[in-house]
Structures
1.
Amino acid sequence: MLRLLTALSCLWLTLCPSATARADDTEEKAIRFVQQLGGKVVRDEKAPGKPITEVHLNGTSVRDADLKNLTGLSELQALFVYDTGITDAGLKEITGFKKLNHLDLSNTKVTDEGTKEIAKHSEMFLLNLMGTGVTDKGMKEIGKLTKLNYLTLGHGVTDAGLKELAGLKELDCLVVIGNGITDTGLTELTGLKTLTRVALNYTAVTDAGVEKLQKAIPKCEISNVKRKGKK
């Protein structure tokens, strides 16, 4: 038995450093990839091992297939790829990040098809879809992200899409834009009592609609930015 335990100890000591080296190597490759594109990584300095928890690739030339290079970052929580050419295909490359909870896809080529991949990230806390091709159809998937706290939507979402958000009982901030949002859409938000901020940008809502929402959620701060010339 002693010989067996000694042999196992030697095996562990032999394999463990190798596994650690492979993990470090994978991380270094990811870092080099991000930096070569002009992006940056952020570590959690207080966590054991100081893992990389954020990757910023916004405004870079990153492509869908490139995101495979991030695979080794098992502790990744936040990914910023706004203002890039990322499409629905790119989202399939990041489904393995189980801790991902911040995702900024604004001004990318993501569509409703991509929301199926987004919905797989059940821990999602912040999601920015401004300037994407996501419409009301995609909101059915986004409505499954019950831990969402901050959500920004684009022109493709209308009153019908807001109706799909009824289950987001932890939503704190909602930003919407476009003529597709009317007083009817605001009515769909009255059940979201956790809202503390709603930003309405160039929508078709009226002052009466805003007032009704305000009465339904008194503690919510509502900003209503209108186009010039409209009352």
Note: The beta strands are 40-43, 52-56, 78-80, 102-104, 126-128, 150-152, 173-177, 197-201, 221-225.
2.
Amino acid sequence: MRTVALIPAAGAGTRMRKTPAKQFLPLAGKPLLVYALERVQASPLVHAIVLVVPPQKREECWREIVEPYRLSKVERIVGGGATRQESVYKGLQAIDPATEWVLIHDGVRPFLPTRTIAPLLEAAQESGAAILALPERETVKRIAREGYVLETLNRQEIWRVQTPQVFRYALLQEAFRHAFAEHYTATDEATLIERLGVRVRVLPGSPFNIKITTPEDLFVAEALLQQEPSSWPDGIEGG
């Protein structure tokens, strides 16, 4: 059973208001992207990695990220597109069609517990799709553009979705074909799978599997890494 990890890291990172783009910002001395790659590479269930970056960064990534950090499972670096969906699709086309499973993980999630990959792959066997998510703890409201409350949602039904997300290769290809035919754009790949009528299995994620998109997120990540490893809460360590 061949599993390939696809790591989208082609975004411009405009919300970070920093240069370089967020995925290349230093975190405790090494690029943020390296953490995500190391966590995925550490899983014996992942056989190869396809990394998607801004087209002009491909050579730089080989030279400054893959080689110095010994990311031996990175087989290809692909230039991304204008949107996440386009970038993931380009990465998908670079994967050997003989691959059975594709694991998609954001390049700006540095604290993925590697041990979550095994149960996620197992859960995906049922329908061909599985994701990580956390139940919402805050009260959630829909707000109008004018700044008024439209409605209060039932938070018991609201979960915040994370990555990795795991899909059967053929199913993911079909989902993208349908999306492009219908000119539909989603913010994650599970949404495309759902539109096929496929049931997506959900497993509990980790509260430390945060996505770094703002300066505040980067501050939190730096604070976590300043703690002694022995004091890290369960869910942040690599295992």
Note: The helical segments are 32-41, 58-66, 84-93, 117-124, 169-181, 189-194, 215-225.
3.
Amino acid sequence: MREIIHSFMRETFLFDFNESINEDSDLFRLGIINSIGYIKLIDFLENEFNIKFSEDEILSNVFVTFSSIMQCIEKKLNN
């Protein structure tokens, strides 16, 4: 799962995790993801993992870091 999401983010947002951008970096503050990218990310995650996010989840800060994205998906898949 981790590599699938990493690969999507590399291809879609044209960046890779490194010393300055790690899995706990705020991807919005760094300018890596914008509002259009956010919609693409949500759509990808829902389709790839056959899950659905609530409006509250989408409007929260759940998806600002790679780590928080992973935690949210793991929680959904385990329910």
Note: The mean pLDDT is 93.
